[in-house]
Request: fold
Amino acid sequence: MIIAIASFKGGVGKTTTAMHLAGFLQSHGPTLLIDTDPNQSAIAWAKRGPLPFDVIDEWHEAPATDYHHIVIDTQARPTPDDFAILADSSEFLILPTTPDILAMDALALTLEQLHDVGAYRYRILLTIIPPKPSKDGEQARTLLQAANLPVFARGIPRSAAYRKAASDGSLTGLVNNAAARKAWAAYEAVGQELLTLGVSSSSV
Ligand code: ADP
Reply:
């Protein structure tokens, strides 16, 4: 499958999501992550440590391997043209958003543009959800569902394990401690849901 991770706002866990879903998909078939974000956060992450999947930027040719899955980490603040290209080149869009008003406003803009280019194959992923007693995650989910918007059943909790993985050039799934296991389980659940959505397998 070819999936793209897109968001208007930075700092919502876009790259963390791209890396972890690429890690999950790699366990189901060879996976390539293409970093099209000028910040090159995914490239920098991959340089810090060994990862189980290939990471390239958009200017480099993919290694001569057949990939079953491609994950595209996109640039923040995509223009309507970027969205049109994304909608054309990927089978499914994942829109990470944190459960706060600024991110939700940015999400509304993203959705407007997606609808303008006729891209309906997307799902929203709530990320960096603060722990209880905060109700931010639940409230954001209720709001999105009330608006009939597709949201992944599982959200991504706020956890220092993701930051640690990024700074070590690793994935939470490759670290053996309770916090990392819990952090990985959240992306695993999202990956499983993705696989049930009927997005086709493909190779390049
Ligand atoms: P974006 O690509 O949207 O800018 P990143 O994935 O780079 O977002 O994440 C921004 C910052 O937030 C990074 O420092 C990252 O380690 C951290 N982060 C991402 N997801 C989480 C999370 N679920 N919990 C805690 N920190 C997170």
